[in-house]
Design brief:
about 200 residues, 14 strands, four-stranded antiparallel sheet
Length: about 200
């Protein structure tokens, strides 16, 4: 252990059992931990490495960051200074002892790749899963602003977005995030809209 890589307190929605834990790592040992604390008291520290990296793929944990929705990523430098990888901790991550992970109310909702990406007219992705109660599909711009929202989308369908906001206006070219949320489980896809 030679250099602590600071992270953040997790406040996302995709991994409920990590909510409120501080995520951090070590550059040299390639380990990642979650710590829960109250003022002046550490409640627990859990080594997440066996669940995150069971086959020792990580080489150097250079940063632990979050996206616009608060979901965690690990940046790993591989060999030279100019190369590396980005790993996302997703909803499949079980992690903490006593964590709920996938339970009886699990929706098992997944989304395929957004295609085509980048797109000019329409981007599509398939939502599949066992939940028949539907969910909420939303589009956010890079500032995190909601620009399009569709509720109660049915799973097992192809969802399309035509680059327009809720009022039917064509949005500016740029990067957008397609987010599907169902029963506490979240899937996000980044797309580039060209005009």
């Amino acid at each position: 252990d030679c250099s602590i890589t600071g992270g953040f307190v997790y406040r996302g929605a995709a991994i409920p059992h990590l909510y409120g834990h501080y995520l951090y790592g070590d550059f040299c040992s390639r380990r990642v931990w979650a710590m829960r604390a109250e003022p002046d008291t550490v409640l627990d520290i859990v080594d997440l490495t066996p669940q995150i990296d069971p086959v020792s793929v990580l080489q150097t944990v250079t940063s632990i960051v979050r996206d616009g929705f608060g979901e965690p990523y690990i940046i790993d430098r591989t060999g030279s200074v100019n190369t590396g990888r980005l790993y996302r901790l997703g909803a499949d991550f079980v992690g903490l002892p006593g964590g709920e992970g996938r339970g009886s109310n699990d929706t098992r909702v997944t989304t395929g790749s957004a295609m085509p990406n980048p797109f000019r007219e329409v981007v599509r992705f398939e939502v599949s899963g066992t939940n028949r109660e539907g969910g909420r599909f939303a589009v956010y711009d890079v500032r995190g602003r909601l620009v399009r929202s569709v509720s109660e989308s049915q799973t097992g369908r192809v969802i399309e977005w035509n680059g327009r906001d809720d009022d039917g206006n064509v949005l500016p070219a740029g990067v957008y995030f397609l987010r599907f949320e169902s029963n506490g489980r979240v899937e996000t896809r980044r797309v580039t809209f060209l005009r």
